[in-house]
Amino acid sequence: MEYDRQNFADSSKVFLRRFEPQDSAMDSSNVVLSHLRVSVKANFDVKGYPTCCGTTLLADNVAQKDAKAIQRLKNAGAYLVGHTNMTELAYSGLGLNPHYGTPENPIVEGAIPGGSTSGGAVSVATGEADIALGTDTGGSLRIPAAFCGVTGFKPSQQSVSNQGCWPLSQQLDSIGPIGKSVADCRLAWEVMSSSTSTVAKKQSSTELEFVIPSNFGFDDIDPEVTELFDQAVSIIEAAGFKVRETSHPLFENYKELPVWHFSAVESRHFYQSHFDIDSADLDPRVRSRIRRGVEIDDVEFEETKNARRALIDTFSTHFTNKVVLMPTVACKAPKFEDLVQDADYDRINLLCLRNTTLANVLDGCSISLPFWGEMFPIGIMLTMFNGADERLLEIAQELELIFANRDR
């Protein structure tokens, strides 16, 4: 497989397949998504269509029934447009797919869309869908949302059923939406979770505080991203919110965690029963990552999981009523030509995933809001503890309005 194929951006590669016109299975008492078009990432089961997960090795994997999230969307009146393109098996934050092509970034010519929910973000940014259904293992909703100038929401994992969704890492995967606005994301999440209050809120008498980590998330950051992020912070402070930059041991401990264990071990365990994980038909960059799972024995993986649990406990205990505030991605959307060499691909992939993966490991909820400069947007990322989804969405809607009014 030659990687020069991945330099070819093709705007027609947003959808892997369109769905046939459908009669909605909506519940007449709950049609909140009536007439809204929803695109579906290619790792969700839709009855009668192949769930290919962006790989040719699952091209004949026809779903026998709808995924749970699909059922809920249909019951709420959504019109499903089609399966969108994605990184093969969701194993990258960049969105490249050498088998089906890669949709070009709709804002920056010659740039990648971000991934792994690449087609989903582009479908919303270009108006081909109102909402995109996707997954987020280490930022796969929020990264492409940031690069494409839309909103991506990673809910608390347990709030949306993963039944009928093919995983990358069962421990880190979350199912969520991409939309043009926070309201669109919130509406889709409420439908999929079948509740506006799926988990209890933690109450605190402490004033809400935005926390910017001084010891995480800003190394190797593009100067243009720093400039726009600083503008956003100034706007947040001017609106009366408390913002504090601080160093916390949680972030130092997080940096010591071998996060790659989760996807490498769990993807290998899952997919080896479905196809040959050493197949030459896999993208070599995906195959090499799956193969790394054999390096980790059960004892070492259990140690990694225990270390993660400790981080989750610390985050839940010490960050109640706090919002971790960072750029969603530390760089602008890379150009296709920047990713030809494996070393560059690996470095940029890790940089793109660095900030977003934090929320998955900490089992939190997180949202990326677009913040526009003159030429391109960045993502402003808000992250809170598990179960704080409603509060996070409320805060995000406040900031969305503040950002929209900044030049008025």
Structure description:
With 408 residues, this protein is α/β, with parallel strands linked by helices. The protein has one domain: Alpha-Beta Complex (Amidase signature (AS) enzymes). The chain has helices spanning 68-75, 118-125, 142-148, 182-193, 223-238, 249-255, 260-271, 284-291, 298-318, 342-361, 389-404; strands spanning 15-18, 37-41, 79-84, 131-136, 151-154, 174-179, 209-213, 242-246, 322-327, 365-372, 377-384. Strands 1-3-2-4-6-5-10-11-9-7-8 form an eleven-stranded mixed beta sheet, with helices on both faces. Helix 1 links the parallel strand 2 and strand 3 (79-84). Helix 1 crosses helix 4. The termini are far apart. Residues 196-205 have low confidence and may be disordered.
Question: What is the 3D shape?
Answer: globular
What's the CATH topology name? Amidase signature (AS) enzymes
Radius of gyration: 20 Å
Assign the structural class, choosing from mainly alpha, mainly beta, alpha/beta, alpha+beta, or little secondary structure: alpha/beta
Number of domains: 1
Q: Enumerate how many helices there are, as a single number.
A: 11
Characterize the main sheet. Answer: 11 strands, mixed
The H-and-E topology, N to C, reads as EEHEHEHEEHEHEHHHHEHEEH
